[in-house]
Amino acid sequence: MPSSIDKSSFSISIQSDDFDIGAEQSFLTRTQGRVGAVVAFTGLVRDFNQRPDVVALTLEHYPGMTERSLEQLLDEARERFSLDGARIIHRIGRLEPGDNIVLVVVASAHRQAAFAACDFLMDNLKSRAPFWKKEHTASGDYWVRERISDRDALMRWQRPVSEAALNMTEHPDKHDHSPLGVSQNSGEA
């Protein structure tokens, strides 16, 4: 990680309150003129899942363990990708369809690193972070289990990375490449 990057630009929050996506993006880009791309993912409560009549979702976590898990995910993303900042916010408590659940915002000098890091964080968050979801439906409540598709998405990050992928996503200090395979002085996002 370049020494000019503020460590406070990498943070997590577990909260019951909603979040402001614009404010979170502004925080990541407030003092960093080198940021050329910000990618955000917002997860919402749906009114269907394993059953078609979801009326609410309750999210629980293990305090202390969950924070450490999310901080570890951010550390892994910082090691793997050329990032200037990242923020993970995950809500807990009872939420209704349409409510925000999770926000992952990633800032980088280049779009490929930002997209890849956001994807990496969400895939890992879905399968590795200790959150438990209970869906409430008109026909009863049930705990949500991990999907095979979520596990498969996580496994793609465990496979050997091709040289072309390294050129686009890996931190430039790890290899003799820039994140895009172009000169760092090009000014391209």
* Low-pLDDT sequence parts: 1-5, 163-189
Helix content bin: 25-40%
Total of DSSP H or I helical runs spanning 4+ residues: 5
Strand order of the largest sheet: 1-4-6-2
The biggest sheet amounts to:
4 strands, mixed
Structural class estimated from helices and strands: alpha+beta
How many strands in all? 8
What's the order of the H and E elements? EHEEHEEEHEEHH
What is the CA-atom radius of gyration, in angstroms? Answer: 18 Å
Shape: globular
The average pLDDT score comes to 81
Quote the beta fraction.
Answer: 25-35%
How far apart the termini lie comes to 18 Å
Question: Could you give the topology of this structure?
Answer:
Layout: E1 10-15, H1 21-29, E2 37-44, E3 54-61, H2 65-80, E4 85-91, E5 93-95, E6 100-108, H3 111-128, E7 131-137, E8 140-143, H4 148-155, H5 163-169
Parallel strand pairs: 1-4
Antiparallel strand pairs: 2-6, 3-5, 3-7, 4-6, 7-8
Helix pairs in contact: 2-3, 3-4
